[in-house]
Write a structure and sequence with these properties.
Oligomer: heterodimer
CATH class of the largest domain in chain A: Alpha Beta
Distance between the termini of chain B: 48 Å
Largest sheet of chain B: 10 strands, mixed
Strand order of the largest sheet of chain A: 4-3-2-1-5-6
Number of strands of chain B: 18
Strand content of chain B: 15-25%
CATH architecture of the largest domain in chain A: Alpha-Beta Complex
Order of helices and strands of chain A: HEHEEHEHEHEHHHEEEEHHEEEEE
Number of helices of chain A: 10
CATH superfamily of the largest domain in chain A: Creatinase/methionine aminopeptidase superfamily
Number of helices of chain B: 10
CATH topology of the largest domain in chain B: Creatine Amidinohydrolase
Order of helices and strands of chain B: HEHEEHEHEHEHHHEEEEHHEEEEEEEE
CATH architecture of the largest domain in chain B: Alpha-Beta Complex
Radius of gyration of chain B: 22 Å
Helix content of chain B: 25-40%
CATH class of the largest domain in chain B: Alpha Beta
Structural class of chain A: alpha+beta
Helix content of chain A: 25-40%
CATH topology of the largest domain in chain A: Creatine Amidinohydrolase
Chain lengths: 355, 367
């Protein structure tokens, strides 16, 4: 379950931010002739609903119903005793608690007086079948279609609030990594976990590449593990619905030269990404990493329900995470870096935290 | 292969043979990972996952994205792993490649729509009950893992008591617990918390409220060890408890005792709930056993933290020997606020085994 701080800071995320996001979706709905858009959320796929309402299902599954006008309504498979908590931490019109989402959904749609029977569903193929089947079986004869592209079109560029929250999440990760590793010693993984959560993170996942002299694969850091002479730690941190990954490599023999080379590379390669339309810049500037050899990059960001998914062509203005792999004679060096792409061509992309 | 998964695999193999099936397709995510973990011993962290397990042990695991792909390859190097940005397409493609082999799927209520949509979708029977029946009854190796998880819950609660000091925020207390669990190699934890006085009506995810002297601090702590959740529910009072708090808590102690007094193989989940609730009703507190104030009077545990059957008066499911559950008559008390108390136990033919060591009392935090 999500077990960090689940709290809505209205100073950082005013209601107007959500009103603006929902209004953009409603505008796109009307343009597409949709009577309603359905957005699913559960623990591993919370991003679209939290983007629109701040609601995070710490557990279980829920469905957001967005109509062309008014505040979205939330159907939740949670006890009605937590409805008050949901209203405190979310910007929604009504919370409907039920063990049967499909039943409540069709009831809600039937009573909504939809102007169109066309229903858009974000990531429709991944939603549990009984929910979709309830809509298909309804007497109203709804015409359902996938609305993932429509939602992705309004999800970015990131607004100021998202950028600020992502930067804060990045700083939480960077501070925790910096504070828990003594030169040459083993990292204090418990301290890293604790420090990120004490800083107010909603959650943190930790992956470790235990021996970069052998391979560059991160594995889930569930259990204590033996770390080699060179290893990497990657933290996936969420703060108020904004997710980033931040990772760094550590060499017990030092590695200052490699750290400096990676810093030089990031400084040289990231700003020219501009709006992200041409990721080739990440390879073009490979020489800036000398003496390290640039191996490749994984680009992740959010355009739907998954907080971080592979984005071969990230949208302009998005907050993305770049997972870099470098190499020297001994082994690999990994670095995961959150970046804000420019909203327009010709503007510079920027790292969320320097250093 | 771990001992516990070796046992699970054999039981699945036997069940598939009995049902005339070649294999089973299971879906999972980080919320509902139980079927996936049971079938292929993998707990997905990010995204959705589907696995296809054949009776001969041939295992195919499909996950979303390279990050999760690296995790699953490390955890199950013997399996055929596909990391993709099109999970549904990959599943359908693999199912097509398996031809007309007889494969059931589970859990049906969470199966992604796209897997079964359209005329060309793979035809699969519902295998949910087949796996449910296996998961309800814990094997000896599973019981041993449960014992370790319960031990972790006891240790975690000690950390909780040390951390819950006046002035600390709820989320800061949880951060201490999570740091401890990380050090202990505990990969998951389901945890709710409440703090305050008579105004508190329930528990919730951790917030910013700071603990005060005189507070009742409630928690439902559920560490997960090698995939298996145990659980402990306790109420902590910050400073000396009042007479009213002590007196109020006795109804929870008596209700837990009443539930355990009848617990054995053959009783129904409903009968345990009735035994608990009768204690409240006898003291004029019956309305606090209703859904206005509480959810369930306990529930099954195992690879899912909130399993079936729930302990509710109208649930007629017969508890079998080997079932693992918690009895927790948690609810609001009008004189003291929300209180919790609960212990987990494995049902036996003539009673139960509980591995919990934390005293079943109102815990006092000295200040």
């Amino acid at each position: 379950m999500r077990r960090g701080l689940l709290n809505w800071s209205k100073e950082e995320l005013p209601e107007s931010v959500f009103d603006g996001r929902v209004a953009r979706l409603q505008g796109a709905m009307v343009d597409a002739g949709l009577g309603a858009v359905l957005v699913y959320t559960n623990f591993p796929r919370p991003a679209a609903v939290s983007y629109l309402t701040h609601f995070v299902p710490y557990w279980n599954q829920c469905l957001l119903v967005v109509l062309p006008e008014g505040a979205p309504e939330l159907i939740v498979s949670l006890s009605k005793r937590v409805a008050g908590w949901i209203m405190e931490t979310s910007h929604v019109g009504e919370v409907i608690c039920t063990p049967n989402i499909g039943l409540e959904l069709t009831s809600l749609l039937a009573g909504a007086g939809l102007a169109s029977n066309k229903i858009g569903i974000v990531e429709m193929d991944k939603i549990p079948r009984p929910i979709i089947q309830a809509v298909l079986d309804a007497d109203a004869g709804y015409d359902v279609s996938d609305a993932s592209t429509l939602f992705a079109g309004v999800r970015n560029p990131a607004d100021e609030a998202e950028v600020a929250l992502s930067a804060k999440a990045t700083k939480m990760a960077a501070d925790a990594l910096a504070g828990a590793i003594e030169d040459g010693g083993d990292p204090d993984l418990a301290a890293i976990e604790r420090d990120v959560r004490l800083a107010g993170a909603e959650d943190v996942f930790m992956d470790i590449a235990p021996d970069l002299t052998r391979d560059a694969n991160y594995i889930r850091a569930d259990k204590p593990m033996e770390l080699g002479a060179r290893y990497a730690i990657r933290l996936s941190v969420v703060y108020n619905g904004s997710w980033i990954r931040y990772g760094r490599s550590f060499d017990r023999a030092g590695g200052a030269e490699a750290d400096a080379a990676i810093a030089d590379y990031l400084a040289a390669a990231i700003p020219p990404l501009d709006d992200g339309a041409d990721l080739v810049h990440l390879g073009v500037h490979a020489n800036a990493a000398t003496p390290l050899q640039w191996e490749g990059v994984v680009v992740e960001g959010c355009i739907g329900c998954s907080p971080l998914q592979i984005l071969p062509m990230p949208p302009a203005g998005a907050v993305i995470t770049l997972g870099f792999s470098f190499r020297d004679k001994i082994g690999h060096w990994l670095a995961d870096e959150p970046v804000k792409l420019a909203d327009f061509p010709g503007k510079r992309a920027a790292r969320l935290v320097k250093g | 292969m771990s001992k516990v998964h070796e046992e699970r695999s054999q039981r699945i193999k036997d069940a598939l043979a009995d049902a005339g099936l070649d294999g089973v397709l299971v879906y999972g995510n980080a919320w509902r990972v139980d079927y996936l973990r049971f079938a292929v011993d993998y707990s997905v962290l990010e995204g959705d996952a589907v696995a296809i397990l054949f009776a001969d042990g041939d295992t195919h695991i499909i996950v979303e994205g390279p990050v999760e792909g690296a995790r699953v390859r490390a955890a199950r190097p013997d399996a055929t792993v596909t990391a993709t940005d099109d999970l549904i397409g990959a599943v359908r493609s693999q199912m097509k490649a398996f031809g007309n082999r007889q494969i059931a799927m589970a859990p049906a209520d969470l199966m992604p729509y796209g897997i079964g949509a359209g005329d060309d979708a793979p035809k699969m029977d519902d295998g949910t009950e087949l796996l449910d029946a296996l998961m309800r009854v814990k094997s000896p190796a599973e019981v041993e893992t449960i014992r370790r998880a319960t031990d972790m819950a006891d240790k975690g609660y000690e950390v909780f008591v040390d951390a819950a000091k006046p002035g600390r925020a709820e989320f800061e207390v949880v951060a201490e617990i999570e740091g401890f669990f990380r050090a202990e190699g505990c990969q998951e934890n389901f945890m709710l918390i409440g703090s305050g006085g008579v105004e508190v009506m329930g528990m919730h995810p951790a917030g910013r409220r700071r603990i005060e002297v005189g507070d009742l601090v409630t928690t439902e702590l559920s560490p997960c060890v090698d995939g298996y959740y145990s659980q402990i529910c306790r109420t902590l009072v910050i400073g000396e408890p009042t007479e009213l708090q002590l007196k109020s808590f006795t109804v929870f102690q008596d209700a837990v005792d009443a539930g355990f007094a009848i617990l054995k193989a053959g009783v129904t989940a409903g009968e345990v709930a009735i035994a608990e609730n009768d204690v409240f009703r006898a003291r004029g507190l019956g309305k606090y056993t209703t859904s206005e104030y509480t959810r369930v009077r306990g529930h099954s545990l195992g690879l899912f933290v909130d399993g079936k059957p729930p302990l509710l008066e109208d649930v007629e499911t017969v508890l079998e020997a080997g079932a693992f559950l918690i009895i927790h008559p948690n609810t609001y008390h009008p004189d003291a606020g929300y209180m919790v108390l609960g212990d987990a136990a494995v049902v036996t033919e003539d009673g139960y085994i509980s591995f919990s060591k934390t005293p079943r009392e109102l815990i006092v935090a000295a200040i």
